[in-house]
Amino acid sequence: MKHATRILIACGLLSALAACGSRKDLALKPGQQLPPAPYGRAVQPQPTELLRTPTLAIPERSVELRTRSEEREDDPFDLPPPEDK
């Protein structure tokens, strides 16, 4: 009985701790500035622009998935392990 009570108390404390996180928009602290504008850009980007993931960071899949099993081609680099003497 004591063991079950401890587990319940621990679960309650952990759920309370997980729920106390604050969710606010990111903002600069007083006295901080955004990084300088990138080379060749006249206007400094806004914080929302800096947080947006660039397209190159999330590439689309360019390989077609196989829909049925196919015979594998011969692999010239698939060599057996060397024999120990």
Automatic annotation (TrEMBL):
* Region described as Disordered: spans on this chain: 29-48, 57-85
Q: Which UniProt keywords apply?
A: Lipoprotein, Signal
- For this protein, the parts annotated as crossing the membrane are none
The UniProt record lists the keyword Signal: yes
Q: Which residues form the signal peptide?
A: 1-18
Keyword check for Signal: yes
Compositionally biased intervals (Basic and acidic residues): 61-71
What name does this protein carry?
Putative small lipoprotein YifL
| Organism in which the protein naturally occurs | Novosphingobium fluoreni
- Recall the taxonomic lineage recorded for the source organism: Bacteria, Pseudomonadati, Pseudomonadota, Alphaproteobacteria, Sphingomonadales
